[in-house]
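Try this one yourself first.
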């Protein structure tokens, strides 16, 4: 792992030296994509470099799933099929893997309603850019494998620290966020296949409870999620973390028993003094046992990462929901402002702040807003 890190650092330095040459503006084709593929230890990375108007707009790395046993040509063909649409296909695609391009050129040309060429043998500046994309792909793949390796070590340490079975792979974590009971949102983040699975995150708007009742909020989100899992919808987790102490963990235990998933291991994460990282207490739902891990335990670091991600995901959703509610309520309180006029005002001024800072004359210029109504709106904020 150390040797991989050294290689990664050295190659990053080499890449910066190449990029410093600033040969972008000499590119002979205005619009093109440069595609390279790196393969290592069964993993693949595709690096896409975008040239538009003769300038380098940046690059992006993709890591195809379920491609471990695929040939390089098959991986590239699958990428081309999934990535390009009529809206984003440039007239030239330079590819570092040789394959039969004829059918793909025809399909992409038909989609884009213009000629699209795919080159696999290149010279000159295109070859230089292809080499750059290849370096990018190899570096990104090395970095991803380093991260995956680190996560695997941390998962192993977490299993050992919490005395978990070796088959514990999929973990879900829940958090509740609100401000004095306002705009309550629950989050669920998922750790599986050795890493956080962003595409499987879910947010839940919580309504119909007493504002500020975190127990009721936790009951609501767990019931909604695991009723579906018990019915065969979605994936069954091996372990569920609850961001909270004994009270919230107790609610989770009741819900899981009610929906018929009482055999899933539950662990509460109680915050330490002053909420300082490293002082968390783990509470096991099946035994009630409490455990504190050393602050430098790498298994604890993985647990903190999952817990922090659940918190971040919940609070981001909560803030957005709260802001939206406050914008709507501020204008809804004004007599004569319905949904159509409210939308017209927010669109015209780019949001509530724009409405607040507008003069009566400016407000009256919005379609559907009379002079008298403009005076009301202005008076509401001044």
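Now uncover the answer:
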């Amino acid at each position: 792992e150390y040797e991989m890190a050294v290689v990664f650092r050295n190659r990053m330095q080499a890449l910066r030296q190449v990029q410093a040459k600033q040969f972008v503006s000499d590119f002979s084709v205005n619009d093109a994509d440069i595609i390279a593929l790196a393969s290592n230890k069964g993993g693949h990375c595709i690096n896409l470099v975008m040239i538009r108007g003769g300038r380098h707009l940046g690059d992006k790395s993709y890591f195809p799933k379920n491609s471990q046993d695929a040939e390089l040509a098959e991986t590239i063909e699958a990428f081309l099929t999934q990535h390009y649409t009529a809206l984003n296909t440039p007239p030239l695609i330079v590819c570092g893997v040789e394959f039969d391009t004829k059918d793909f050129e025809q399909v992409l040309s038909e989609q884009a309603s213009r000629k699209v060429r795919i080159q696999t043998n290149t010279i000159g500046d295109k070859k230089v850019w292809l080499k750059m994309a290849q370096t990018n792909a190899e570096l990104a793949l090395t970095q991803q494998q380093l991260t995956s390796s680190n996560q695997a070590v941390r998962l192993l340490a977490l299993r050992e620290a919490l005395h978990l079975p070796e088959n514990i792979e999929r973990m879900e974590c829940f958090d509740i966020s609100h401000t004095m009971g306002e705009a309550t949102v629950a989050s669920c983040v998922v750790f599986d296949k050795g890493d956080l699975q962003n595409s499987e995150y879910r947010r839940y708007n919580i309504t119909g409870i007493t504002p500020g009742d975190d127990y009721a909020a936790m009951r609501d989100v767990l019931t909604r999620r695991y009723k579906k899992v018990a019915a065969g919808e979605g994936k069954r987790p091996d372990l569920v973390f609850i961001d909270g102490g004994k009270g919230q963990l107790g609610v989770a235990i009741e819900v899981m028993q009610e929906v018929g998933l009482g055999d899933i291991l539950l662990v509460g994460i109680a915050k330490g003094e002053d909420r300082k990282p490293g002082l968390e207490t783990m509470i096991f739902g099946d035994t009630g046992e409490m455990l504190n891990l050393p602050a430098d335990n790498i298994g604890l670091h993985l647990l903190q990462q999952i817990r922090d991600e659940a918190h971040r995901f919940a609070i981001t959703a909560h803030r957005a929901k709260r802001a939206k509610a406050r914008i709507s309520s501020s204008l809804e309180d004004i007599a004569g402002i319905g949904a159509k006029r409210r939308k017209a005002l927010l669109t015209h001024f780019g949001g509530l702040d724009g409405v607040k800072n507008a003069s009566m004359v400016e407000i009256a210029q919005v379609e559907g807003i009379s002079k008298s109504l403009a005076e009301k709106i202005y008076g509401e904020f001044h």
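Discussion: The radius of gyration is 27 Å. The first helix runs from residue 2 to 19.
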